[in-house]
Design brief:
The complex is a heterodimer of chains A (287) and B (332). Chain A contains twelve helices and no strands. With 287 residues, chain A is mostly helical. In chain B, a hairpin with a 4-residue loop joins β1 and β2. In chain B, α5 crosses α11. The relative contact order of chain B is 0.13. The chains are: A mainly alpha (287), B mainly alpha (332).
Chain lengths: 287, 332
């Protein structure tokens, strides 16, 4: 069969092609705008309010100028620490089990459980911890840390599993062939082989929970002063930003922006850092 | 006695794989380090399952008083009044569903376009920074989105977007009423921005799984690049895009802080995108810490339970779809 070339149709196709490619490019550039807008705003609004007091003072009364977020910064640190000492070992254990030991159907079920846990809205985790801990013992840093832990576990578990899977099988076999017990092979050979990747995953999990607000609202609650113990209601950066943002006082709003700037910087720096860590060696030289 | 001793290796093998054969060959003691390590890991993994189940159970138990009091009426009435003690979640469910679906409608076309462009068309020097910007959107904390939405996006919508919409499309119920900025529209835009990186990332993965030869075949037959994208890329990734969409929906349903700060927190059922609203997640953030009565606390727990179940269902469904796509390519 001979197909006659139809110049008009060819032209139409070419123009449609150009139009489609241009609009795809346009939409993509548009999609990158929100990040630029948000970061420009956060930097320009937050930078002016950042000063030494911000890191060293506790909040002044409503409407008063000055004061800072020292208690929230310390509180966030405590909460992240509490979440990490539970969440990182537990998450890594689950990741190691998924990658090194489980096979077949059970591993599928477990992976599904981890995925489901990762997808639970964080506010629901807050309510669970409220029912479990706060109802009996009141607002505390422990309760906030527990909810952050529950958010960290699936993140750490999935990234640990992925990274361990990248370690080639013959390394395990070599270790086992030397007569080393399996647990030593896993802990001394396989896990160190994926060290960078696992550290990256842990850092990303920390960055993730550093900005979590919803589960802290009614677990660690908030505090306008320094907490004296971990059993007390504790201030945290995200919750303090939320409180300041809806307060309606100009100075508190400025400090909310400053807090947002600190949070965003923290998160972006960690993300950039993990990218550098994970970049395969030598690739940079080829370009 | 003979029969029993025959079974011992098999039972041992079930309990701890590999142990019985090692015993027979080398006749050495059980390696206790191995055993403790293995069971420790196994327990920590299954404890996660127990944690998930106990979450479902505890939140269900907390919401029982409200379900007893209101029964099915809880889901079909929209009174939310702590003074009279009447609680119905219809307006919250409406707000959640409408805001999430509208956000999906906004985010999916953009995400698919971005994924196509970054994977198939853009040169390396462009796709890297663009991809980074879009991935970073997923890393920004939700509270920062809320702050930006409240102080930047909402005033922008009120001053520049909503008045012209009201002028030209004000006759439809969708864009009626006074432009306030804070409200359903701001929530939809914020949600769309927040779920875009998730959907984009999964779409990119789905597109990457398509064999290169399919694309080259389409180009070789004389297709233009756009036709190649349509024939070789989009047509074979419907299921993957669907999975990404449902996963994005799951994220949008549970998103709390950003929505709480921009939606206006007023349980209304209104067709207008200008009016304020309330979602299941946002009412929890607003009222849970300062609930007046046990009944209100229980009603809020019931809302949380509903949200929990819905998000489990949605995410389970999405995982199944994404898994099926993956195994398809692996076998094919």
């Amino acid at each position: 069969m001979i197909v006659k070339r139809n110049p008009l149709r060819e032209k139409k196709r070419r123009w449609l092609n150009r139009f489609a490619i241009c609009s795809l490019a346009g939409i993509s550039l548009l999609g990158a705008l929100p990040f630029l807008f948000i970061s420009v705003y956060v930097v320009s609004m937050g930078f002016g309010a950042l000063n030494w007091d911000f890191f060293t003072m506790i909040p002044k009364g409503p409407g008063e100028a000055g004061g800072g977020m020292a208690n929230s910064i310390l509180g966030s640190g405590a909460l992240i620490f509490l979440g990490s000492i539970g969440g990182i070992p537990w998450g890594m254990a689950v990741g190691i089990y998924l990658s090194e030991y489980s096979r077949g159907k059970t591993s599928k079920i477990l992976r599904f459980v981890v995925d489901l846990l990762a997808s639970v809205p964080s506010i629901v985790i807050g309510i669970f911890i409220y029912g479990l801990i706060v109802m009996r013992y009141g607002f505390s840093a422990y309760a906030g840390g527990a909810s952050l832990m529950m958010i960290m576990i699936p993140v750490v578990a999935r990234s640990t599993e992925e990274m361990l899977k990248l370690v080639p099988g013959h390394i395990r076999e070599a270790g086992l062939a030397l007569g080393i017990p399996r647990w030593k092979v896993v802990l001394r050979i396989v896990v160190p082989g994926a060290k960078m990747g696992i550290i990256t995953g842990v850092m990303l999990a920390v960055a993730r929970v550093a900005g979590e607000t919803a589960p802290l609202l009614f677990t660690s609650f908030g505090n306008q002063f320094h907490s004296r113990s971990l059993g007390q209601a504790t201030a945290s950066m995200p919750v303090q930003i939320y409180t300041f943002a809806k307060s309606g006082f100009y100075d508190w709003e400025r400090q909310a922006w400053a807090g947002a700037l600190v949070l965003v910087l923290f998160v972006v720096v960690i993300n950039l850092f993990t990218r550098i860590l994970l970049r395969p060696r030598g690739v940079g030289n080829e370009h | 006695m003979e029969v029993v001793s025959k079974w011992i290796p098999f039972v041992l093998e079930r309990i701890m794989p590999g142990i019985s054969s090692a015993r027979r060959i080398r006749r050495r003691e059980v390696n206790w380090g191995d055993r403790v390590f293995y069971y420790g890991l196994k327990a920590s993994a299954w404890a996660l399952g127990a944690l998930l189940l106990s979450m479902i159970f505890l939140i269900w138990k907390m919401s029982l008083p409200a379900f007893h009091q209101f029964g099915w009426r809880f889901f079909i009435t929209n009174d939310w009044n702590s003074v009279t003690g009447e609680f119905g979640a219809l307006a919250l469910i409406y707000g959640t569903v409408v805001s999430s679906l509208a956000a999906i409608g906004l985010a999916v076309p953009v995400s698919v376009a971005v994924a196509l462009f970054l994977n198939e068309l853009a040169p390396e020097w462009l796709s890297r920074p663009l991809g980074f910007f879009i991935e970073m959107l997923a890393a920004i904390p939700s509270i920062v989105y809320g702050l930006w939405g409240l102080f930047v996006l909402a005033p922008f919508l009120r001053n520049y977007i909503q008045p012209p919409l009201a002028d030209y499309l004000g006759f439809t119920p969708l864009f009626s009423g006074p432009p306030m900025g804070v409200g359903m529209m701001a929530a939809v835009v914020i949600l769309a921005i927040m779920i875009m990186p998730t959907i984009t990332a999964i779409c990119r993965e789905v597109f990457r799984a398509i064999p290169r030869s399919n694309k080259e075949a389409a180009l070789g037959l004389g297709a233009t690049r756009w036709e190649m994208l349509k024939i070789a890329v989009l047509r074979s990734s419907h299921t993957g895009i669907l999975g990404a969409t449902i996963l994005g929906l799951g994220r949008a349903l549970g998103e709390t802080m950003a929505v709480t700060m921009v939606i206006g927190n007023n349980p209304l059922i209104s067709a207008s995108f200008f009016s304020s609203g309330q979602t299941m997640a946002s009412i929890l953030a607003n009222q849970y810490a300062e609930a007046d009565s046990l009944l209100q606390l229980s009603a809020l727990s019931a809302v949380a339970f509903t949200l929990f179940l819905v998000s489990l269902l949605i995410n389970g469904l999405a995982r199944l779809i994404v898994w099926r796509v993956h195994s398809q390519y692996k076998s094919g």
